[in-house]
Structures are given as structure tokens and as C-alpha cells.
Give the backbone structure.
Amino acid sequence: MNELIEGLVISHLGQGIAVQYYDAIILCQPRRKLETVAVGDRVLWRLSSPDQGSIEEILPRRSLLIRPSSNGKIRPVAANIDRVFVVVAVEPFCDFLLIDQYLAVCENRGIDAAIILNKIDLALPESLLAELDIYNRLGYPFYTVSTYDHRGLDALNSALKDQTSILAGQSGVGKSSLTKTLIPDLDLKTKTLSETTRHGRHTTTAATLYHLPGGGDLIDSPGVAIFGLAGLTERHLAYGFRDFQPFIDQCQFNDCRHDKDKGCAIRVAIEKGDISASRYQRFLKLREKMTLA
Ligand SMILES: Nc1nc2c(ncn2[C@@H]2O[C@H](COP(=O)(O)OP(=O)(O)OP(=O)(O)O)[C@@H](O)[C@H]2O)c(=O)[nH]1
Ligand SMILES: [Mg+2]
Ligand SMILES: [Zn+2]
């Protein structure tokens, strides 16, 4: 029997799971009945053939992002994440509903969150900056960058140090461009990965973990659906709005839906300007989306 070895899951590939062990990347299959393995998982694996492995165990996770899977269950997508960086850009249009959704998930899962505005080499509308400033005032770190002229990348690099981060956001905002800019020898690593899998060209179809030269890991993720509100209740959603938290317990009724309810402290806070009306409108929209799902 081969001995068990600890490794790090860096990507899901069509033919299996890429596990990193020192400088090697080993294509592994999960053993039968193992729960779903996620990018960022630390696992125990063993060699099952000269160049392939079997994942025997998932080590305890310190955080987990999930999404609904096709069979109505939930599926883990990324594990051991310290911070989610929500990437938005001057174009395509900034999807604030998506930002609020990501932040609400992070708030509930005990994962830090920050926002990156990319493509600041393009003309910046004042209204965009004003709306994004709301998040900064709520305590979410805010980075403005351009992968074209490299503005803001030093500050972002320092923020990524010594932790595991994931880039999330709409398709086309520049997550992969940022990853490539921050990790100069990325093409080399991608090549190693494709050689291991004999899969040809690498595209952002699966979340992939890379090591940053200055320390820390960065996961580039595909498109929007990397994680969602799966597993959260209406109550969780309200709690997920950080600006609501101080007021939730002050509502007159325990089961307040913060809508047309009598004595709702959230609505009073909006009238006083303590909660932004646009955030509140998006809360209502997200809640509707949740009940439809
Ligand atoms: N003007 C400008 N364009 C950028 C910048 N960064 C990336 N782009 C462009 O934006 C487009 C999308 O970039 P990607 O990095 O592929 O976007 P992504 O977020 O990885 O997209 P998905 O993988 O589909 O989720 C490309 O055409 C890039 O050249 C930037 O700083 N400024
Ligand atoms: Mg990409
Ligand atoms: Zn209320």
C-alpha cells in the first residue's frame, strides 16, 4: 500500500482533479463515496498508478463557498478562502446586485470581502465611483487598478499576501487578466497543467489556484456562477447586508421582513440616511430572486 501524502487541490479538470505536491501536479481521482472535492482543499492522496493518484480524504476546511448543482443539491466550489475579491470594471456595466449577493454570502460564511475596480485606464463615470464608495464606507477595502497601465497593482499585491484569495465577478471584468499580471510565470504553470492532463489549451472554465510570487494563493474563477445564495435563508440575506446588522434586532417584530412591516428599524434607518436606499432596493430584489429559485 502506498503511503498517504498531503496535497493541495488546484483545479478540477475534465479527467480528474489536479493536486499539487511540491513542484509536481498529479492528476487524481477521488475515492468512491468521497464528498465533493473543491479547489483550495487540502487532501490526503496516494499514488494509484505510476503517474496518477487517488484522493482518500479531505482535510478540515476553514471556509467553504458553495453553489447549487444540477440535481438540486449544493456543491462545494472553493475551500479555505480567506478573502473574496469581487472584481468589477468600468465596462462591462457594473452589476451592483451581484456585488451585494457576493458580499452577503461572505458575511454569512465568515469570509472577508473586498472590491476591485478594474480598467481605470478607461473614462471613469462619477456616478460609478459614488455608488462604489458606499462599500468603502461600510468597511470593505476598495482597490482601483488597471492591468493595462498597471496602476494600483502594488497596493493590491500587498493585500493578497499570505492568504488565499479568490477573484469573483462577471465575465469580461478582467479576472484572468489580473491573475496573469500578478503572476508573471503563469503561462509556464498553465503549460505544466495542460501537459499533465494532455488537455491542450487552458481556458477559464474551472476555478484554478495559483501561487503569488510574493506569497499567498490566488484563485481565478470563471464567470458569475462560481457561488451564490444557495443554503441561505431570508434572515441570512438580511444579516448579509452589513449595514442592516445594527438595526435588525431593533425591529418591533421578531419576524420582521423589513418591507412594509410595522416598526421596522431598517426602514427608519433608510429614512434617516443610515442605510443607502439603493442597497435596500437590491436587498428586496435579491430576496425575490431567492424565493423564485
Ligand atoms: N481597458 C482595459 N481592458 C482590460 C483591462 N483588463 C482586462 N481588460 C480586457 O477585458 C477583457 C476581458 O478580460 P478577462 O481577463 O478575460 O476577463 P475575465 O473576468 O477573466 O472573464 P471570464 O473568464 O469570462 O470570467 C479582455 O479583452 C481584456 O483585454 C484593463 O485594465 N483595461
Ligand atoms: Mg477569465
Ligand atoms: Zn425590519
